[in-house]
Amino acid sequence: MKVLVINCGSSSLKYQLFDMRGETVLAKGLVERIGQEQGFITIFMANDDKIINKVTVEDHEQGIKMMFEQLIGKKYGIIREFNELTVIGHRIVHGGTSFNESVLINNNVKQIIKNLFLLAPLHNPPNLAGIECCEKIAPQVPQVAVFDTAFHQTIPPYAYHYGIAYEDFEQYGIRKYGFHGLSHRYVCMRAAEMLKKNIAKLKIISCHLGNGASISAISGGKSVETSMGLTPLEGLIMGTRSGDLDPAVIPFLIERKKLTAEEINDYLNKRCGVLGISGVSSDFRDIEAAAREGNKRATLAFDMFCYRAKKYIGAYTAVLNGVDMLIFTGGLGENSPQTRRNICSELDYLGYKVDGDKNSVMGQEAIISTDESRVKILVIPTKEELLIAKDAKQIINNI
After folding, report:
1. End-of-domain residue from the set 112, 147, 182
2. What are phi and psi of 385, to 5 degrees?
């Protein structure tokens, strides 16, 4: 069984082709700078060869055509024809309250994704474009939608409601939805496998840390709380996102800086976070490097990020009434020993103790807690695409 997984972003698309007999990756690729004058299309072969070509990609439909040309073309010969694909799985960012699991795509599913453009204007439109492009190019191949928000639909009402007038929740759907659900779901399942534990009996805090970052409290394999909210802006300080702040800051800035609603939204999402604080970069690798060289604003940005993460871990320890596992994942969580060390420092009272030598690991699965730590602390590289492929395979097998 061959499953193609597609993740369409606002100006890019990523894909992986899996052979599900051994859950192996046959090829993966990336189309970048869609809609810009100069784009790139990259394919990574199973033997780790990488081919990069400069191209002009006008829209997502053209990008998906190029993707299929790579997969089916004689030059690379990964598959011979569309019929070799059993199913195509799509990562969809926002499913609202309509989806608490992955589903086979039909017209009703597409309409709901479209209805949610208002809540995810940067993500759901290209997600839907990817689905419709595949329908045109390979209409005979069934498609499955896997939602980033679905995992968090188990969060209880007292945790997902905001302190706003209830009629505004009813009319506009203003509530916490949460994101990074695929990543949190994958790593908590993988952690249980690694330690040979029954996930139904585990209390886990999962930290997906990168340019976008979120922390989730997971009880019995189900999300009960998460840091992102109505949008991915809530929660931790991120690469360019402000994270939590006093709501009164928004009208204050609008008045003082003479901003429109669109401009304040752009400011909070693209000009704040560690970029805005440091003045250096939105890339945490640059922030850490600048801090080591004595840049005070970079040091402040890094300390603020770690402090916010520590606060969430402490809060979620209370939410769960104790924790069995703490997981670090995402580009920063997987590859920054300093970040993990700083976040876990002074949490030993709650049972979190990092082993300095074990914590040196980067980009691979490991247990980094000391032997006497009450909480097992793990590093687990996330595999969202594999989870999408598994969901797609299961849905097709159950038809």
Report:
1. 147
2. -65, -40
Q: Would you tell me how many other CB atoms lie within 10 Å of the CB of residue 283?
A: 16
Domain at 8, CATH number: 3.30.420.40
Same domain, 258 and 368: yes
In whole angstroms, what is the distance from residue 19 CA to residue 27 CA? 10
User: Out of 148, 246, 283, 371, which one is annotated catalytic?
Assistant: 148
| 319-372 pLDDT, tens digit each | 999 999 999 999 999 999 999 999 999 999 999 999 999 999 999 999 999 999
180's CB contacts (< 8 A; 6+ apart) are: 148, 208, 212, 214, 216, 226, 228, 330
Please tell me whether residues 129 and 221 are part of one structural domain. Answer: no
Quick check: 302 and 288 in contact, CB under 8 A?
A: yes
Active site residue 59: no
* Assessment of whether the complete model's pTM goes beyond 0.85: yes
